[in-house]
Amino acid sequence: MGKRIVTFGEIMLRYSKEGARRLGQGNVWEGQFGGSEANVAVSLALLGNNVEYVTRLPDNDLTAACKHTLRYRGVDVNHIVLGGQRIGTYYYEPAKDLRRSKVIYDRAGSSFYSSAPGMYPWKDIFSKADIFHCSGITCAVSQSATDATFEAVRTARAAGLRITCDINYRKNLWKYEGADAHATLNRLMQYSDFIFGDQDEWEIATAVPQVPMGHMQADTELDMEAYGKYFEEMHRQFPNCGEMMLGLRNQMTSSHHTLTALLWYKGTIYRTRIWDIQNIVDPVGVGDAFVAAYIHAAEKWPGDPQRGLDFATAAAMLKNSIEGDFNLVTEDEILDVL
Hints:
It contains eleven helices and 15 strands. It is α/β, with parallel strands linked by helices. The longest helix is centred in the middle third of the chain and has 16 residues.
């Protein structure tokens, strides 16, 4: 089972209408559990890792169903804290052809929204852990959830854990009084050994303009000189972070994307192929698939960053073929694609 990994964040109920219907069409809603850090936990478990997911949920039957879903996928939920009144939700309208997707969050007042320092027994949780994964999305929920997140990363750092971070910027969430996405995300990233984000997220967190990408095709040659200077600035801002990944995605239509990533690993930049993905089923959770697969690869094949990058990008590519938040693929399936 290898090293023990802990992830922390809010799991929600995701609601959508059937097929590609808009939120105002039809009468039937489809519901399933999902959320960035839970998605990472499920993916890591399916890849064979020893992983625990920590969150706060109400003491009711919905939480029992949520726990069962995670346990069924192999995730330890023994430190989920019970409290508060309800589980957070979000409403997802999928993209179709040239129509963009739409997300409406309903998280204010959820059990996790009122998370606060002292609610989670971090010393006990981390006593047998080796890696802690968090994301900026937890800091976008509320000020108290932000405070709880920083309590977790400080405790993890003091305990000597490897800290991985997904920037995970969601502009629709940073609404509470005093919310400052740039300052908060940048501070969170200072604790991190590995950071992942797409070009827009890195720009929000660092205030460094992204490298112009243009209309990326499968045979596009990326400007590696420009990316070299870009990562030099990232390393200047985060001198204690040894691994930084930049996800690059071009969306031609809702069902046709190109996808690749660059990895800065201890001073060297690695790149992988550009995947041309057609007939996309569901792009939600692609970033989470990147993160989980890279964490897995870094532990399975230490010191081989090219293999880790290739593996992570292939896993993210496969997520586009799977409905729902979770990337339900195995290590063998990813390796077969490679």
